[in-house]
Amino acid sequence: MKNILFPLFVAVIAVGCATSKKSTAIPIIDTHIHLYDTRRPEGVPWPPETDKVLYKPILTEHFDKVSDENGVNATVIVEASKWIPDNQWVLDLVKHDPNRYIGLVGSLEIGTPDFKKHLFQLSKDKRYVGIRMRERPGGDAFFENKAVWADLQLLAAMDQTLDVLMFQYSIEDVDMVAKRLPNLKILMNHVAGADIEGKPADPKWVAGVQKVAKNPNVHCKISGLFQQSDRQPSPKGVSFYKSELDVLWEAFGEDRLIYGSNWPVTMRGGTYAEYLAVVKAFFADKPRAAQEKYFYKNALKFYGLPPLKR
């Protein structure tokens, strides 16, 4: 009897340990990936053909593999194309897997006559959670356009979100919008545009972050770290990025920081696993509740998404 029961006991213990390990893993939502197909007859507006790293089909089968290998439960796609039909193209591309591809931050040009029509149509799909400000037509006069403010107000009224690509917009721009439209949920991309050099953060950037973070409707996406290091390959140790990450943690706290990778752009600097390891290392000494908020709970709340299906 003893010989029969011992293997059964060992099997029960093994199953129990595996279940315990699985139950303690913190879910991950990557809120910043791009999908596109360079083989389409009409081509793609981004990336350019000269980009030897990115100019190739980047589709669900490619991110499925990345997410499975790295324990990423779900993702919010950020549209990188300026072509209006490509918003629907992405929604159709991922409709087969709604549990993994849970949201789309679209691309619509703010301040144009058809903005309202397109937003109404696309937002009928609950996965369409907002738009990203990318380009800045009109230059410095962009925010002098009344139509721009009308469209931003419409976003807020519809509970749609605003991601901001921090290349053509400044922290001061975000602060202005946040103050004028306190009900608009704003998410600054790519560590608020920090230039990361592996040394103390730029004082002007620090002051800007501290100021904009006083607006409770402003959040920050810790994404694009490899990109913001401006090094290929990018540094893989968290110490290189710690100065800027410390500033963001102090300014936004555990409730307004959100995880994103910027895949496949991350491939210029290293692997997805290497990128994820950097942010995991930074949050390793934070309370578990803070890690849960950063890796998935804040994303669900900000984008107004339903609970994950695990």
Could you walk me through the main structural features you see in this protein, from its secondary elements to its overall organization?
Helices cover 41% and strands 12% of the residues. The chain has 310 residues and is of the alpha/beta class. It has one domain (26-303): Alpha-Beta Barrel (TIM Barrel), CATH 3.20.20. The chain has an 8-stranded parallel beta sheet with strand order 1-2-3-4-5-6-7-8. Strand 1 (29-33), helix 2 and strand 2 (74-78) form a beta-alpha-beta unit. It is globular and about 50 Å long.
Stretches with pLDDT under 50, minimum 5 residues: 4-22
- Would you tell me which CATH topology applies? TIM Barrel
Give the name of the CATH architecture.
Alpha-Beta Barrel
Structural class: alpha/beta
| Count of DSSP strands | 8
Gyration radius, to the nearest Å? 21 Å
CATH superfamily label:
Metal-dependent hydrolases
Walk across the major sheet and give the strand order: 1-2-3-4-5-6-7-8
Mean pLDDT over the residues: 93
N-end to C-end Cα span: 39 Å
Give the biggest sheet: 8 strands, parallel
Estimated share of beta-strand residues: 5-15%
What is the element string, with H for helices and E for strands?
HEHEHEHEHEHEHEHHEHH
Number of helices: 11
